[in-house]
Design goal:
Blueprint (H helix, E strand, L loop, with lengths): L2 H35 L4 E5 L2 E9 L2 E10 L5 E9 L5 E9 L12 E10 L5 E6 L1
Parallel strand pairs: 5-7
Antiparallel strand pairs: 1-2, 2-3, 3-6, 4-5
Length: 131
């Protein structure tokens, strides 16, 4: 074999490896996109709060609460309660606590966001409560 044939084989080998790597990379991304497209985002709005939740598989759910408080002196906390039934009934509760009457506070809307997870079957029903 002469030098031109070695060069041709080397270029052909490099192209083959490049095409193989390209295929593997885009095939992996396509599978990841397919997995992510199976996740369904659910949304509930109540008062000034929005609950977004998704089933992640293996009886695990993730949720995010976002909303607005009347001013920065208000406090809020979030908890998820799972009722033992089938299908489970899940209540995501936002507890809003007003400041004491003698507290002076700037009258500006305050953003609230919290996230968490809970365990329930895929058939569980989810509800948002604001207290």
């Amino acid at each position: 074999m002469n030098k031109q044939q070695y060069t041709f084989l080397l270029v052909l080998l490099a192209l083959s490896i490049g095409l193989f790597a390209y295929y593997i990379f885009f095939q992996a991304n396509a599978e990841e996109k397919k997995e992510n497209s199976n996740i369904c985002l659910n949304r509930i709005t109540k008062e000034n709060f929005v609950l977004e939740y998704t089933y992640q598989g293996d009886s695990r759910w993730e949720y995010t609460i976002s909303g607005q408080l009347p001013n920065p002196c208000y406090q809020a906390s979030t908890e998820a309660l799972v009722a033992e039934s089938y299908p489970e009934q899940v209540s995501v509760i936002v507890n809003v606590v007003a400041p004491d009457d003698d507290v002076m506070c700037a009258q500006v809307i305050s953003e609230y966001e919290d996230s968490g997870e809970f365990n329930a079957s895929e058939e569980a029903t989810v509800d948002l409560q604001v207290r």
